[in-house]
Amino acid sequence: MTDQPTVRIAHLYAHFLNIYGDRGNILSLSQRARWRGIGVQVEAIGVGQEIDPERFDLYFIGGGQDKQQLVIAEDLLRHARSLQAAVDCGAVVLAICGGYQLLGHYYKPHNGPELKGVSLIDAYTVAGDRRMIGNVIVRRPDGSTLVGFENHSGRTYLGPALEPLGRVVSGNGNNGEDGLEGAVSGTIYGTYLHGSLLPKNPHLTDELLAKALRRRHPDIVLAPLDDSLELAAHKRALSLPA
Ligand code: GLN
């Protein structure tokens, strides 16, 4: 019986919601774990499959166009209670753009019916009349920055008690109106930042990885890595025009 710590990642709808290379977030989480000698198990969870809320430490759901969201929204709704149970047991959720929109109460696209979300976060999204496309810089409450790329028409509005991931320094963020980007509720993270997000934001990758690992390895501490390459990419992205 190995005592090597492992992280178990569920990649929800890997083949449907993977726009703008969002699977790069899985690669970043996995590699930063392996570089530390931590075992990694990634399982793709597709439409029609079941989720064991005890099994996974981190759930990832990427972004997609309205038509992909339409395909998976009903199936995701089946998992609402399992995902809430998993979060209640300390699992981490990272949702990007279209996946983020479905974490809230609903997403109303331009055309077609309102898509009911899983209500893991107190937020809702309505498609606006213009697409918000471009580079984004976000400043988090601890003063750190996040960089990424956005491409969405959805405007997401947070409930009064829901914290944003950070404030927009450049770009649009949740809705292009209130200066907020993303949402954080305990171990649940939602954001519009594609890129993919994590490779250029190693501090956020490690924040998510540490929280996910502590679910089954409470005393684990992540050894520092040489982030010179990642931080050089982060610094370059800080200089890009919105
Ligand atoms: N279809 C959604 C929108 O346009 C999400 C897009 C995405 O995931 N990039 O807002």
Written description of the protein model:
The N and C termini lie far apart (51 Å). The model has no long low-confidence stretch (mean pLDDT 96). This protein has 6 helices and 12 strands. With 242 residues, it is α/β, with parallel strands linked by helices. 25% of the residues lie in helices and 30% in strands.
* Physical arrangement of strands within the biggest beta sheet: 2-1-3-4-12-11
Tell me the number of strands. Answer: 12
Proportion of β residues? 25-35%
What is the C-alpha radius of gyration, as a whole number of Å?
17 Å
CATH topology call: Rossmann fold
Helix-strand sequence = EHEEHHEHEEEEEEEEHH
Task: State the domain count.
Answer: 1
Low-pLDDT runs = none
Mean pLDDT, as a whole number? 96
- Helix content, binned percent: 25-40%
Number of helices: 6
Please identify the top-level CATH class: Alpha Beta
The structure class reads alpha/beta
Major sheet size, sense and barrel closure: 6 strands, mixed
Ligands present: glutamine
Q: What is the first-to-last residue Cα distance?
A: 51 Å
Anisotropy-based shape:
globular
CATH architecture label name: 3-Layer(aba) Sandwich
Per CATH, the superfamily is Class I glutamine amidotransferase (GATase) domain
